[in-house]
Amino acid sequence: MTDAPLETAGYGATPRREWQYRTPRTRLLIWAFWLCMVAGFVFCWQVMTAGTMWFFVLDAPKQAADIGGRMWPPRWSYLPELMVPLWDTLNMATLGTILGTLMAIPVAFLAARNTTPSAAFLRPVALFIIVASRSINSLIWALLLVAILGPGILAGIIAIALRSIGFVGKLLYEAIEETDIRQIEAIRATGAAPAQVLNYGIVPQIMPAFWGITVFRWDINIRESAILGLVGAGGLGLKLSASLNVLAWPQVTVILLLILATVVMSEWVSAKVRRALI
Amino acid sequence: MTSYPTTWCRPPQIFTHRGWRIAFQVGVLVWFVLAVGTIDVNWERVVAGAERGLRFVNGFLQPDFTSRWKDISQGIIESLTMTFTSTIVGVAISIPIGIGAARNVAPAWIYYICRSIIAVSRALQEVIVAIFFVAMFGFGPFAGFLTLSFATIGFIAKLLAEDIEDIDEAQAEAVRATGASWGQLINYAVQPQVMPRLIGLSLYRFDINFRESAVIGIVGAGGIGATLNTAIDRYEYDSAGAILLIIIGFVLVAEYGSSYLRKFLQ
To answer: Are B234 and B141 found together in one domain?
Structure first.
């Protein structure tokens, strides 16, 4: 017992004192935080599972084995039929990215604090556009647009574009705000007009970030466009939902593997391009 | 004194050969024409839908919160509880996986197992996972909870692993030099360095999970997405507008709240 002499060190009246990392107040706060988290978790769990049929949940391993058994072997002869939807999916993602980026550029310039023409009115509007576009997933945009435009890849392209505005706009306006002020000052000192300042002072500085963001979003859009067909917006998702509806599980396997291959490819391409840019 | 170049020189090009560059540009042009050509638009359908579009815009401008409030509030509660529980469970599972996927603290075989778990979780879209979980576990928020937890693992574990790989090795070395065991090394050298970022990532993931919970409802996994899907299917655009505004509001609160909290913690 190496601790013992501390208590019997002769100063009988002094209470035992040990060094502690946190003050009692912080310790209490941390304890209260954990208590709240656990209580909140239990409460949320109760509310969430109130309507759950535990019979189905307990049945899940059997269901999983059943579905797995039906999915194998994949029906490879279905693959040629998927080439046109694959082309549609890739086009939807790429055209959607182009369209979305074109719309995002002015929004980003309006939202950036150093380039916005009116901080009081236009900047909040631009920020609202960015937030609204970011909070609503492209699948929801597609759901709305299919009801308006009818099924087809046009709805998908616009859905992808609308979702991309927020993403590209947000990252781009942050890049604009982080530009080096001295270079802009230097251009301005030569007597350049505002458009020239934009063109020669800001645009060259954000160009690498811009291409990086665009390629990154393209990669995400490939993933998203693969499933947009579930709500009727064309592409691979349309085939997926058709196969799911008739319970053609071997076809589902083929589609999922194709989606997986496409996603891996696009991620590889985007990583290569971004490494080349930076 | 540094010397600056006085002549302009061409920035580096991706394709060094002129022929390749022209071929690339022509290729892009051909692809663009072909791609735009394959969009078949049924203009009659678009004109017919334009009226609906107008009604949607009107619904968005004059949202109707009241007439479907019971369904909306039910959906919101499902979404929020789903988000909260799945974030906690997902983070709890991804901490050991993230530690296992960090090359500097885990042996090679564990590293490869954890990395492949992360790769699988990241490669599968939430919606596709949700379809399977709904098929297995039945409709409702429980399937959504499992989907979001599964998606959280890939996200948090990957970023946590990268963060652990980036820690200051000097501190780990100092703790190791005292004769600390592996568990003590993780607790006293790694954990204090990655904790602030882990909390930030968890809050960020909470935000993403809420947004995703609005989507996976479309394929039957409960939450506000299911309510939204029903509202759009019934052409009740004023209710749909109200739901979208609520989602935007929640995302705004979550985003600003989490960025405030992150600043407060750091």
So the answer is: yes
